[in-house]
Amino acid sequence: MLMSPVGPILIQIMSRMPNQINEADVPVKAEAVDPVDFFADSCQIFQRVSHKIGGTLDKFYNLHGHLIQLSFAGPALTRITSALEHWAVEPNGQPDLTIHLWDDASTNTQMPPPPWLGYGVYDPNGGMKGVYGKRGEVRGFNTDRIRTAFQWGSDVLSVLDMEQGRAIFWTRNAEHLPQWEIGSPLRNILHWWLNKQGMQYIHAGAVGTPEGGVLLVGKGGSGKSTTALTCLNSDLVYVSDDYCLVSTDPTPTALNLYNTGKVREDNIHRVPHLAPVIHNIDKLDQEKALFFLNRFMPEKLSKGFPLKAILIPRVTGKVDTTLTSAPDTAGLSALTLSTVHQLPGAGPAALQIIKRLTSQIPCYYLELGTDLAQIPRVIKEMLVG
Amino acid sequence: MTHFRVNSPNVIHEIIDGEAVLVNLDSGSYYSIDSVGAVVWDYVEKGLSRHQIVEAIASQYDGEQADIDQGVQQLFIQLQEEQLIVPTETPSSNRHAPVTTPASTGQNKPQFETPILHKYTDMEDLLLLDPIHDVDESGWPNSNPNNVSYA
Questions:
Q1: Residue B14 in contact with partner chain A when CB distance is under 8 A
Q2: Rounded to whole angstroms, how far apart are CA atoms A160 and A166?
Q3: Which residues from B are below 8 Å from A134, CB to CB?
Q4: In angstroms, what separates the C-alpha of A225 from chain B's closest C-alpha?
Q5: Residues of chain A positioned with their CB less than 8 A from the CB of B138
Q6: CA–CA separation, A78 and A95 (whole Å)
Q7: Is the C-alpha dihedral spanning A111, A112, A117, A121 positive or negative?
Q8: Are A324 and A174 in contact (CB under 8 A)?
Q9: What's the rounded Cα separation, in Å, for the pair A367 and A322?
Q10: Closest Cβ–Cβ partner in A23, A137, A154 for B144
Q11: In angstroms, rounded to a whole number, what is the distance separating the alpha carbons of residues A199 and B83?
Q12: Where in the sequence is the domain holding B112, given as residue range(s)?
């Protein structure tokens, strides 16, 4: 690994095996590891892997005017592209963002150990911490230029060089990626990069009409997905049930990213119109039901619409669905906290966009009733009324 | 009896997966409190006094009374310094919900750990506590149960 005097200070930890970070270990040695060098090394590893297996498999996507190239070393990881297929285009010019993707298992290679193995970092609250953050951030490897995260649970390394518009996506075994990496792929890289393009990756659903729609916000289990997917059985169009993009320039707008929908197995009965098109019917004991909506109802998939309101779903147990006014801060709170909680590096920049958004449109509680057919009607009446 | 309230509307907050996530909208600073601290925050939000919170924590967690008293007191000082809570004469009655103490009886009380308020002011500081993780022989963490360690 290249070392540079300009990188962050990592503290090597003495006398331990590399299977646990122990904050009580004694720092004995300081070295600077440059994140830019780390990224360059990672790109060289991708080049070697792709050369070994005979070249790359390249796919291109035009995402809201930005050309994105996914360059795969072998076909194994192309399974993550289904959620983006509605953006696919033929190669047509210089990509704005190129992502190199590979796994060890299908290429019969092995990623070298990370340069931070055996190191800790000083904690701003005092003492020393391990390198990995709770949302997967790699301490010391996140700068204005380089973003680095290791996604817990899926074991995916994502690194983005903002300056080059180039990223890597690596995992041990493409076959072991969990369902959420198939339904919402490349989350970290797209979140980091799209933020620089004026689009904020947020944790929210969005449904509406081509003339205007609503954001559905709240933490997992609050009713976002069920509400959004219920609206597929109406004349409303769909942007997302879980993750989408928002822009506030010049006006609040919801923008589609993935063509997927997801619902817990015990909620499938609430969206019976989707039961015939469940993608992972054989794995529902382990993961949420997943739908690729562009394959079965592409006319319902909207690339985006102006935002007219923020709705916070609340399950009431009553029959009827109604709307009630919510405080100004309710939407801000629900949207900010669930987004910040999930996305590495979702910090003050995200807060500014979300604050602008929530200051420009009203917020309501969507009091969800048990008569699900009322839900899209109530939303549409609010939009057109 | 000293009561505090969340410094709303300047502070937005939510407990997500056992972690209290707080944002001070005036300063733009983000905060998190894990474990015992998140329980304390929940009680503050419910309108309990500091004394009541210490009692509730002592009934739920295994630890020396003095340590619990000092730990909760220290957290209150930090929360006040960061203007996340402010003193109030009396709590509003509708916010004073009964305290649930699921671990308050029996031999299996969780160990009291001193609550720590973590503050993040910029991108580099947005780094929360380390999750427990194993690293296999390849040198990379192994948190996906589907991944088999390299021989």
A1: yes
A2: 6
A3: 127-131
A4: 18
A5: 110-111, 113, 172
A6: 18
A7: negative
A8: no
A9: 5
A10: A154
A11: 31
A12: 3-125
| Residues in Cβ contact with A17 at an 8 Å cutoff, skipping those fewer than 6 apart | none
Domain co-membership, A145 together with A237? no
- Residues from chain A that touch B122, judged by Cβ atoms under 8 A, are 347-348
Interface test with A, best of B21, B25, B27, B127 (most A CBs within 10 A): B127
Instruction: Return per-residue pLDDT of chain B as tens, 151 residues.
Output: 678 999 987 788 878 778 888 888 777 677 888 889 999 999 999 999 999 999 999 999 999 999 999 999 999 999 999 999 999 876 654 444 544 444 444 567 899 999 988 876 533 333 333 344 567 777 788 777 776 543 3
Widest distance between CA atoms in chain B = 63
For residue B130, report the phi and psi dihedrals to the nearest 5 degrees: -70, 130
ipTM greater than cut 0.95: no
Same domain flag for A327 and A253: yes
List the helix and strand counts (H, then E) for chain A.
9, 21
Report how many domains make up chain B.
1
- Number of Cβ within 10 Å of residue A50's Cβ equals 20
Mutate to test the interface with A, among B21, B121, B130, B134 (most CBs of A within 10 A): B130
Q: Domain range for residue A157?
A: 36-118+134-196
Q: For residue A21, give both structure tokens.
A: 């970070």
Residues A182 and A256 in one domain: no
Structure tokens at A98: 């190129």
Q: Say yes or no: A56 and A110 in one domain.
A: yes
Kindly state whether residues A161 and A247 are assigned to the same domain: no
How many independent structural domains does chain A possess? 2
- Give the distance, in angstroms, between the CA of residue A107 and the centroid of all CA atoms in the same chain: 26
Question: Across the interface, do A176 and B133 touch by the CB < 8 Å criterion?
Answer: no
User: Which one of A153, A329, A347 has the shortest CB-CB distance to B126?
Assistant: A347
* Same-domain check for residues A61 and A150: yes
Q: What is the dihedral of CA A17, A26, A123, B53, to 10 degrees?
A: 90
